């Protein structure tokens, strides 16, 4: 781990993992709170490190201190949430590979608390090293294998780290102007501080540069559509929805955001776009047909309760209250509060 002033979350993190690791390596980049004291409670080996605005350098320094053959990398605002000890030991007992673990990011959306899942390379031989000043990646030719380790991450929930991250990302973009990944990442930072125009502009740059072979490409396209809605650049969205249906034919998130986009487009000019109304229903039904998936960047609910609820709203608006009740009831079965409220009003 690399840490700085993490006394609020560090105990939760270390408590979730300490029972099945041989050593804990913590690199501190200048804490002034109780971080080191908490680390000592878990017999962690703590090393001081002068921060240079380079996450890979700090990560690699931490890895250089490890004496174990394998390393599991966590951040202080994460914690393991499933019983995965046997899974970890099974993984490291086989041929060397890079273990990708599931991270569930908690964030605030306009509909309330939401959760996005991604798969990140965090379990690997300690000889591996990182590259990249920010959103650093393990550099290795070893195969990537998903491991049943699940971590919860709430470090960005109602918190902002943009003051730290945006200047680094701007520098990296200047050094790598053709790399869509960094435009994608800085767009996330802008979205977190409600800079919708900058989010849109960054994702437009990213979208223009992707090859569609990138693992994050589906998430990028979905987020670009959300940014188009939020920034009001609706005239650009329809072409993207039409162009990406083959590529994202199995993405519930894509059909979910496409339905949201079509509603905004129709409301912006009913005379021109009213013929698209039936596609809202079709897209939500397609999202439900696909269901919840393990796809990179998918938001939990777009293939289940959130789609049921939005479809219920659609039916309620067009006056089909029986179908609306059916959809709200299906969402209610997940405990989805907005649907429970709508049912009480109906």
From TrEMBL:
Q: List each copy of the Glycosyltransferase 2-like domain by range.
A: 1-105
Report any Pfam family annotated for this entry: Glycos_transf_2
Q: Quote the protein name from its UniProt record.
A: Glycosyltransferase 2-like domain-containing protein
- Domain of life here? Bacteria
């Amino acid at each position: 781990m690399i840490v700085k002033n993490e006394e609020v979350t560090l105990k939760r993190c270390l408590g979730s993992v300490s029972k099945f690791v041989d050593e804990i390596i913590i690199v501190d980049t200048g804490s002034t709170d109780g971080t080191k004291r908490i680390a000592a409670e878990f017999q962690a080996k703590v090393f001081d490190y002068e921060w240079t605005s380079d996450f890979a350098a700090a990560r690699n320094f931490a890895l250089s201190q490890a004496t174990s053959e394998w390393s599991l990398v966590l951040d202080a605002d994460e914690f393991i949430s499933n019983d995965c000890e046997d899974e970890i030991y099974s993984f490291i007992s086989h041929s060397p590979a890079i273990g990708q673990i599931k991270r569930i990011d908690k964030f605030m959306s306009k509909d309330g608390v939401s959760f996005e899942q991604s798969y990140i390379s965090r379990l690997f031989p300690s000889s591996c090293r990182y590259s990249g000043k920010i959103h650093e990646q393990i550099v290795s030719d070893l195969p990537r294998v998903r491991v049943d380790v699940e971590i919860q991450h709430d470090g960005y929930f109602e918190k902002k780290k943009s003051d730290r991250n945006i200047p680094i990302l701007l520098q990296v973009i200047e050094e790598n102007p053709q790399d869509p990944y960094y435009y994608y990442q800085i767009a996330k930072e802008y979205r977190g501080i409600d800079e919708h125009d900058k989010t849109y502009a960054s994702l437009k740059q990213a979208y223009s540069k992707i090859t569609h072979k990138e693992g994050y490409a589906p998430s990028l396209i979905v987020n670009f559509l959300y940014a188009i809605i939020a920034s009001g650049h609706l005239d650009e969205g329809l072409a993207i929805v039409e162009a990406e249906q083959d590529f994202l034919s199995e993405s519930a998130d894509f059909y979910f955001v496409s339905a949201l986009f079509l509603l905004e487009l129709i409301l912006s000019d009913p005379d021109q776009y009213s013929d698209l109304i039936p596609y809202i229903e079709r897209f939500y039904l397609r999202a439900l047909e696909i269901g919840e998936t393990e796809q990179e960047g998918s938001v939990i609910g777009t293939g289940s309760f959130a789609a049921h609820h939005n479809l219920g709203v659609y039916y309620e608006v067009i006056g089909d209250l029986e179908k609306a009740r059916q959809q709200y009831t299906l969402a209610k079965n997940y405990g989805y509060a907005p649907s429970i409220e709508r049912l009480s009003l109906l």
